Amino acid sequence: PDFIIERDFLNFLVGGGNHTNDTYVSLEIEGTEVYRISGKNSEQMEWVSWDTTAYIGQNRRLKIIDTATGGWGHILADHFVQSNTAKENYGPNFVDYGMDFYAAQSFSDIPDQDNRRIWLAWMANWDYAGVLPTSPWRGSMTIPRKLSLIKINDRYRLSQQPVDELLKKLEDKTTLTDFNIEDLNSFFQGKNHDVYELNLELDISNTEIFEINIFTSENNESKLTINRVSNTISFDRSNSGLLVDNNTFSQIQEVYFEPSNFLDITLIADKSSIEIFAQNGTIVLSNVVFPNGNGLNFKDFTGNTHIIKAVYSEINPSLSSNPIEKNVLVFPTLIQSDTSHLNVSLKESNVDDISIFDINGKRLAKISTNGTNGNLIRISAEYFTQPGVYILKVRSKTNLYTQKIVKL
After folding, report:
1. DSSP designation for 332
2. CA-CA distance, 145 to 151, in Å (whole number)?
């Protein structure tokens, strides 16, 4: 359609495919194109503001072109408004930009004198929760995080930071200042990095691309990339170890950060998880990984990143005074489809007696050994009438052992 330009700006929403010549919105003034924009291969529409101050009073033509086919072969455009002010495009802010932060839960009984809001979340994803290569447990929780609101460029943002109690588990703290990348790599080379916290204060005023490679081995790594050109932070676990053949698991996560010459990063790595906090906790990425290495190194593709400060601390893995018992079966679970039976793996295939006892030692049932299939036996859930702890006792001609079962 043709319009007469009456205001300083044309504001509108755009989304859809990123095909410069086939999916776009354009503005023509007296037959000459002065603006053109496509989508970003996203259904999330964003505000666009075109400065039309120089064309007030002139006839204009607005074109919406949609001639593409195939992937992202469409354009989205809406809400065209002439205005004397440009529309600010804030976009959505996600609580966590990683793939493994689900159903966050906050604590409701924190003492008034503490005055903190603390939450954590299930560290897994339904797209691959059922195939996590772990046993006997599947999934875990994130570390607890303290929540607050901070103001950045006149906007309030949610900030998350690891709770202070975690500091009590830090050991062998090493602080490095005014380091370059070569010195940093030299310090970390040859060490095993399984469970640790790394705090970085970076001067990125002359940075283009800076990488932190986590849980590295000869062939695998998880990669955190800071791209100063595009002002983005991305996390790539597509070559991290196990489960990388899952499409959701292997997606690269990318988030925009507010332009600044300085960037702070806190990285907390456990044996199968990586939690990243950046820009004062306003950017968080939580992910599970299943690596086969424990190296740590850094890459600076321009050599101009300055490490103002690096603090590396090992974390005492015994966060609980009671170690987790390995000889425990729990059922039913959220990812268990068949709740009528419990599958138990036996240490041997030829057994003489299988019995179920309650926690007080009373025998509740004797299981027929005819139901065994090799080393696997299916036990009906009807034997576990109430939630609680049960003991499975297995006896063969040469061995006698027990298995603890927890019915939820």
Report:
1. S
2. 19
| Tokens found for residue 148 | 């607050």
Show the DSSP H helices in 227-377 as ranges: none
Residue 182 dihedral angles phi and psi, to the nearest 5°: -60, -45
Q: Whole-angstrom Cα distance, residue 266 to residue 348?
A: 47
109: nearest Cα among 101, 121, 118, 100: 118
> In sequence order, what are the residues at sequence separation of 6 or more whose Cβ sits closer than 8 angstroms to the Cβ of residue 13?
45, 46, 47, 48, 76, 77, 78, 79
Residue 339 sits at the vertex; the CA angle it makes with 335 and 345, to the nearest 5 degrees, is 85
User: Letter for the amino acid at 114?
Assistant: D
Q: What single-letter DSSP state applies at residue 71?
A: T
98-133: b (≥16 Cβ within 10 Å) or e? bbbbbebeeeeeeeeeeeeebebbbbbbeebbeebe
Q: How confident is the model at residue 329 (pLDDT cuts 50, 70, 90)?
A: confident
Helix, strand, or coil here: 381?
helix
Tell me the per-residue pLDDT of 130-180, one tens digit each, with 9 for 90 and over.
888 876 667 889 999 999 999 887 788 999 999 998 877 777 788 989 888
